[in-house]
Amino acid sequence: MGHSKAQKTRTHKRIVSIASKRFREKGLAGFGIAEVMKEAGLTVGGFYKHFDSRDDLVAEAVSSAFGGWKRRVDAAASGGPSISLAKLIDSYLNEAHRDNPGTGCAFCALAPEIARSDKRTRALTSEQVRNDIQLIATLLPGEDKRTARSQAILTFSALVGAMSLARAVSDEALSREILETVGEHLKRFASKQQGSNRGKKAGPLSD
Amino acid sequence: MGHSKAQKTRTHKRIVSIASKRFREKGLAGFGIAEVMKEAGLTVGGFYKHFDSRDDLVAEAVSSAFGGWKRRVDAAASGGPSISLAKLIDSYLNEAHRDNPGTGCAFCALAPEIARSDKRTRALTSEQVRNDIQLIATLLPGEDKRTARSQAILTFSALVGAMSLARAVSDEALSREILETVGEHLKRFASKQQGSNRGKKAGPLSD
DNA sequence: ATTATCTATAGATCTATAGATAATGC
DNA sequence: ATTATCTATAGATCTATAGATAATGC
Predict the structure, then answer these.
(1) Could you tell me the domains of chain B?
(2) Nearest protein residue to the C1' atom of C25, measured from CA
């Protein structure tokens, strides 16, 4: 029953980390406080010394899910501009991500539930969406900032929609087709000069 | 306490219709049997003469949501090929649809929850996704069937993703920007010959 | 006779709180 | 002295069932 300050911080992070994973797997309403605490090796009673309410945990868990995804995106972004967007797309639209929502993107796992959540969670989401659009825009080859932002919004939407649909269907072939097809389209955009349909000035893509 | 066969059928449809709307609004776990029955002017006890389980209602309600959306899509599809895809896109990516999930598309309202649902619901979803892709493909101007299907998958994914994100963010300007930007991109594809980036052979779009 | 619906409730589960216990930290 | 955690439980809610009631339909 130890409780140093450092220990409490570690415990807090562990609770949030578990909730973040399980919420993505089972939905924001699909996993209870008792289960989270049990998985963290604790009991229900201690929960409210860490959080004022369940919604508090939801907000922190969603934020943590964004952070985890961001670290993976940053890793994918360490490279040349065009090739890394292709990498990012591939690291998103694949079967491993589809089959492991707990460690994946929070948007395709939770977007409709976030839309029904409290203001704080949705404010965090606004910021994360802004960041992700910004990141994708910088990875796009076009020079025109406005065009890059516009294309980034399309890319981001298509990524999230494709994964949402690929997970929702039971037909494995259809699910794969969605992932592959959208991936091909988006990578084509990523390797092409934006803002005009004239050129096919390829980016530094090797394949 | 009347109960003719015709009456029972009407009651059944009413229950499904209410559930279909409320599930889209509050999530598959966000609305209880007692509430559905109460809104239908009935009490809990009668529920299980209509459905074997709650999952039965979920499956029927999701199916009903697909049907309702299909009718609206069919209405939008009554016109020339290219102009009606632009119409379809506009009828999807707007603020009225964003703010009224209960009468809107079931994918952007429920996709992650459907992914966690039973096999039957996901099988229904596969069929609906196939139909919607097929519909969009026939509305695309390109002659090449494979290209049209590929483009339809991208369009469908971007529609669902854009609406999911537009609903999840609290920032109204960002939300609108997502809807407008993705709409512009998709309508540009819809009015352009697919399968090549050479031409800009416009479709019969009037604007 | 059958059955659609009602009232009532069992049993499970979930959030939140109360009070006890045992460790930290001044 | 403070507090992180524990045990125990109140109170709410949700699915599903049991048995009664009142209408249909043979």
Answers:
(1) 2-63 (1.10.10.60), 67-198 (1.10.357.10)
(2) A4
